[in-house]
Amino acid sequence: MAQVMEDERVPTGIDGFDELCGGGLPKGRTYLLSGTSGAGKTIFALQYLYNGAVKYNEPGIFVATEERPEEIRRNARKFHWDFPALEKEGKLAIIDGTSMKLGLASNEKYVDIRPFDMRHLTDQIITVQAELNAKRAVVDSSTSIGFHIGDPQKIRIELLKLSTTLEVAGITTFLTCEILDQNNLGRFGVENFVTHGAIALYFKRAGNTRVRSIEIFKLRGTPHDTKVHPFDITPNGIQVHPHEEIYGGD
Hints:
Layout: E1 9-10, E2 25-26, E3 30-35, H1 41-55, E4 60-64, H2 69-77, H3 83-88, E5 92-96, H4 99-102, E6 110-111, H5 118-132, E7 136-140, H6 142-149, H7 152-168, E8 172-178, E9 197-206, E10 209-219, E11 228-234, E12 237-240
Parallel strand pairs: 3-8, 3-9, 4-5, 4-7, 5-6, 7-8
Antiparallel strand pairs: 1-2, 9-10, 10-11, 11-12
């Protein structure tokens, strides 16, 4: 079991975000990253892994359960993040959890040919983590996993097992979650209860335009900013404005 000091932090490297949480996220915990479609969840998650590998020498794992790995690499390329190069260097792995669900063949290095199963998926994450000595992970998304499981109580149990397993392994993880409206953190009403923290990305209308903003909804056991701050998606990724605040919106 990985031993983690209480004050150890994992910087995301996302411009402006770490200032909101004391320099980074408490290490070895699992965090919910929620937002409506188009809010920027996947970009945030990709940037977190890229920065980990490039800036902090922390290999990462991206678990794709909605998009095929080639789409993930294509999305990263838009921001000049060379995921194939990191994969070759052993600093990043993409687990293909999508192809089998769709009944499609896969040439990926990391793909489970068995029918989709949470225990199999968790075992594979731990196997890849040992191979890369991975310190970071993203599971994109908990929503897709939830639809596969169906029953909210079973979803809570399975996500709790996943979250706990990754925390025991010392991996600092984001579970992305797509929501239908901006008044709920989870799609099934249970995701917020199985994670150490929750971060919400908003894409709200203000007059005749839409404004992107971010809120750290909770971080257990540590102080953090409680205001809603604007952010932009730039050619280099997400940039949070920690000294500006969002006061209104629809």
